[in-house]
Design a protein that fits this description.
The chain contains one helix and eight strands, in the order αββββββββ. It is mainly beta and 108 residues long. It is globular.
C-alpha cells in the first residue's frame, strides 16, 4: 500500500493540490487525478476486462479512469483534464484515501 503518497496536507484547497507535483519526484507540469473518496481502487470494470487507462493512454474531461469502491458502491472516477496518462500511482485493490493522487497526466 502507498500510505505515504497521501501526505498530511491533503486537506489543502483542491486547486492547490491538483497542480502540485512536489511529492511526485520532479514531474513538473503533470496534473494529478485524485481520489474523491476513501475506498478500494480498481483499474478495470471487472476482473476479465482491460484497465480503463494505463501509461500512454489519452484522457479527456469525463473519461472514466478507474473505479473506487466505497461501502459496496462502485463509483466511476472521471478525468477532469485532457492529456496523456504518464504514471499510475496505485495498484489494483489498493486502499485509497480522500485526495490521494491516483494518476499523473501530462496536459494536452
Amino acid at each position: 500500500m502507498r500510505r505515504a503518497a497521501a501526505p498530511a496536507p491533503a486537506p489543502a484547497s483542491a486547486g492547490e493540490s491538483r497542480g502540485d507535483g512536489a511529492d511526485a519526484g520532479g514531474d513538473d507540469g503533470l496534473v494529478a487525478i485524485e481520489s474523491p473518496m476513501v475506498g478500494t481502487y480498481y483499474s478495470k470494470p471487472n476482473p476479465d476486462a482491460d484497465a480503463y487507462v494505463s501509461p500512454g493512454s489519452s484522457v479527456s474531461p469525463g473519461s472514466v479512469v478507474c473505479i473506487v469502491e466505497a461501502m459496496k458502491v462502485f463509483n466511476e472516477i472521471k478525468s477532469e483534464v485532457a492529456g496523456s496518462v504518464e504514471r499510475v500511482l496505485v495498484q489494483d485493490g489498493d486502499a485509497v484515501e480522500f485526495g490521494q493522487k491516483l494518476f499523473l497526466v501530462r496536459p494536452a
